[in-house]
Amino acid sequence: MKLHWQNKEDALLDTSDIALHDFLFHEDSLTRFIQQRCEGEFNIELMSESLQLAMSDETQFLSLQSDEITFIRKSRLKCGDHAVVYARTIMPQKTIEGENQWLTKLGTKPLGDILFNDEKTYRTDMRYAKIPVDCELHKEATKDLDISSELWGRQSLFYTDQQPLLITEIFLPAILECSKN
């Protein structure tokens, strides 16, 4: 299923849950933003890190060949025991060569903290989409969770040392329970 990714202005009109806006449209480090609301209970659940093919919309957004292998990191950002965001990071081979090999060895370290503190890294594009229940990305994000509702997600295209990486963040319902400081 092809997702309908949209710009911020269109997504703002399409998003009825105002409480979600704070998270979905946050432009600085989402990790740090969630950490502040979790009152010290923030952690990362690493689901997998491996070489594999990207999904078709990721391949298209990164201008990759359809058979190009990428390094994919899948994780969940959690407040205590509650998964609040599913994160999927796509790194083409050219991105993880040389000095950037450390990107393949993050484990449970938050990638967002690193990207927003690195002067050689910048974000160029952000786009947003509703993630329907029957979508592969929804199934991946909600694996082992009891979530049967449509979700919102966003994609951010970053460049580190002039090489691209794509981060997709799917906002799980528990994100709305994060306390506000």
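the 2nd protein, sequnce then structure:
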Amino acid sequence: MSRNTWWWRAAAVALSMAVAGCGSAVPTPAPPLPPGATAARAGVPFTLYTHCGIHELSFGGRWYERVGGPLDDGNGNPPHGWDNPEQQGTLTGSGPTVVFRDRAGHRETFQLRPGATSPKTVCS
């Protein structure tokens, strides 16, 4: 797979998550990245699942959790200013750390959960 096509697969997975909507309580993991690929220096389009708050994300077949713990409104919803059930933005980073940014000015850092194969939290 060429260097420029892997992010199209990631974008397609993000789009499929958007089409699934609120009917799914567990965000769909993205497919594994090609060897040596990262979230990119300039950022790749990414849809962050926010329905029960900002807890974790799946990218490139790996699970990451938010640094600082879950971010929500205290009632299991995304905080004021976040879209629900998803927030559009970009993902940057490499290795064990990725950063989600959006046009609203949100910037959240996520740390790799080594060996994780599923979400830590299932949205109810």
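The chain has one domain: 6-22+29-112. The helical segments are 6-20.
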